[in-house]
């Protein structure tokens, strides 16, 4: 009985329950405003269960235990918006895009991405869990947006959303890819650029050629950023060489708001 009680308590974390409830409310509002069909509801439900499960597990594995905190609350709100974007993108395959709602939710999510880091630093609540939570929310939003933009620009856009996940998969077989990355303003700028560019392309307000060139430029910048980091990791990890001047000279600290690590 004690084991069952512990398991139920783990499932009933107030933070994750609040997030799941918030996304359910958002899906109802989106249904009333745009008419979500089965595809949208299914995608939203799967997203809710996935986030609930992964976040609950991460909270119970984090040590030492600490309050959820205001910064993670902001990230949870942003994750709820990402769930709404996911539902809208899934529904676009079944019954056409809901551009206005998608753009509105994405814009707010991107703005909040700059807020949670500031909240963490001002309240002294930076944590490895918070950095990872923030990064995963960012990565999934970019993945979903790339799927949406790929409908009009072509499947090559999916490379933007998939690149980080390919990197993570490769790191499982190439241990040197798990090496630490130093803080990099260029990396942060390129990462932030992806969401802004994909949002601009998603609005449909840009001429097709301009949208294509803009997304291509964002993809090129992302390839450069990953290539630069992979080269540095290979030099230090695979070759066992000394860190290059000005690059990979120290282990990075995990900074709340955007982790300075790929994985």
TrEMBL record:
InterPro entries: CDP-OH_P_trans, CDP-OH_PTrfase_TM_dom, CDP_ALCOHOL_P_TRANSF_CS. The chain crosses the membrane at residues 36-55, 140-171, 191-224. PROSITE patterns: CDP_ALCOHOL_P_TRANSF (PS00379). The keyword Transmembrane helix applies. Keywords: Membrane, Transferase, Transmembrane, Transmembrane helix. One of its GO terms (cellular component) is membrane. It comes from the Bacteria. One of its GO terms (biological process) is phospholipid biosynthetic process. GO terms for molecular function: phosphotransferase activity, for other substituted phosphate groups. Belongs to the CDP-alcohol phosphatidyltransferase class-I family. This is CDP-alcohol phosphatidyltransferase. The lineage of its organism: Bacteria, Bacillati, Actinomycetota, Actinomycetes, Kitasatosporales.
